[in-house]
Structures are given as C-alpha cells and as structure tokens.
Design goal:
Blueprint lengths: L12 E2 L11 E5 L9 H10 L3 E5 L17 H19 L6 E3 L14 H14 L3 E5 L6 H16 L4 E6 L11 E5 L1 H11 L3 H10 L4 H15 L6 E10 L1
Length: 247
C-alpha cells in the first residue's frame, strides 16, 4: 500500500480511516526540537498502530532560547536545554531513546541550516540507514528558513534515493500555503494530551509567553483549531499534511 492510492476521492483524507500496514517505518525529520511534538497526535496514531517511528532532530534550536532562561546562557548550554526538552517529551510520548538522534547540521552565520553538501550527506545517510517508507517534515512553503531548507534537502535526497519514498509535509503556524491531502482530527482529550507534550518544551513556553503573550502549547493548538475548520467532520482540532511521492 502507498498513500497515493488513497487520493482518488475527496480530499483531505482522514488518516485514521486508512489501512496502514504495521510494518511501515516512519522517519520524522525535525528541523528543531519540538517539531516532532507539533504533529504529536498523528504520530500517536501511527504508534498505536504498531509502526516504528524514528526521529532525527536536525538543529539544536539554541537560537530559540531566551538569554537568562538557563545558566550559563551560552549557545552550547542552550542547545543542551532544548535537546533535553525533546528527550523528555519523546519519553512521555513513548518513543525509545534509541529512536531519537540529534544531528546538529552545519549552520550559516544567521544560525540557519545550510543547504550544502555536508548537510545533504548527513540527511542522505540518515534516510538510507533507517530506510523509512514515509518521512514526515514541516512544509517547505514556510517563512521559517530551517523548515524550508529541511524540506529542500530531503526532497533532493528522496529524488536520488535507491528505494521508493513517501512524505507527509505538515502545516504549522508559519506555513504560507499548502495542499491539504491527509488529516488527523481530534477532540479535547487528545488536545489536552498534546498540550502536555508541548509543555515539555519549557524554553519555548517562556519565549512564546514573552514575545506573543500565549504559551507554545496554545499557539500550536490554535493552528489545529483553524485547520479543523477547513477539514470535514465535527472535531475541534486537526493536523494536516501535503503528500509527496518518489519512486
């Protein structure tokens, strides 16, 4: 089975209605610590189906930690803080520690992931080592440079891979525009669970409260409410994805 076969009818397709093989392996390419959590309900759907999930966090996200949040407030300490937050959230989710890795790709002078050959090779090695059937990543049509570059690097890897690859690119608060092919709908109980997952990222809770006046959890769930209004059904929240396929 591949997801492409399910796109012949009306869109978007509800993921929980799809016949997903248990032996299908998934890889989450997360530009920052916390991008995994932004699609936590969909990943829990796969987890509960018995699918193996692997997570590769591509940058430390140290630039997203406010000065004074940790002591000392140097980049290396900030990087450790964010990675420890991701480790704790993944343990709460139920992901084995051995399925989480931090690649710390090379960055440019602005702290963004470089699209150079070294980073391309690291992502290619990761994809070929894990050999997932499906890769999940933020969408490339996004104001966040790390989201754009992660998507671009992965698409290059997928187009040159020696095996078929499918992708689900998710919408987040900074996505500009994307196609809605698949979605996961959820209610208040699952939203509360997702909020707990997101709150493990204490540095992002603090930063969002200071800069936006809302917590990181509410920022993500607010987008999930908006998405649900654009999807069929009566659930209050939804995560949505654009599909990609390479053979």
């Amino acid at each position: 089975m591949n997801f492409k076969e399910l796109l012949s009818g009306s869109l978007p397709v509800l993921l929980s209605s799809c016949p997903i093989p248990q032996d299908m392996r998934l890889l989450v390419l997360a530009p920052h610590p916390d991008d995994f959590d932004a699609i936590g309900v969909t990943l829990r759907l796969f987890r509960d189906n018995g699918n193996q999930i692997f997570v590769s966090v591509l940058s430390s996200g140290a630039g997203g930690v406010e000065d004074g949040f940790c002591t000392p407030s140097d980049p290396e300490t900030k990087a450790r803080v964010r990675e420890e937050e991701q480790l704790r959230s993944c343990r709460f989710f139920g992901l084995p520690d051995t399925h989480l890795e931090f690649l710390r790709l090379l960055k440019d002078s602005d702290g963004h992931i470089l699209e150079g050959p070294e980073n391309y090779d690291l992502i290619r090695q990761c994809v070929h080592r894990i050999r997932p059937a499906v890769v999940l990543s933020p969408h490339g049509n996004d104001t966040n440079a790390n989201h754009r570059r992660t998507c671009s690097l992965f698409v290059r890897v997928a187009s040159e891979a020696e095996f078929p690859l499918e992708a689900l690119f998710n919408r987040d608060p900074k996505t500009i525009r994307m196609r809605h092919d698949f979605f996961t709908a959820f209610g208040s109980a699952e939203a509360a669970w997702k909020g707990s997952l997101l709150r493990f990222h204490r540095s992002q809770m603090e930063r969002n409260l200071h800069t936006r006046g809302i917590g990181f959890d509410e920022r993500i769930l607010r987008v999930n409410r908006e998405i649900a209004q654009e999807c069929p059904g009566e659930k209050e929240f939804a995560e949505v994805f654009e599909y990609g396929f390479w053979e």
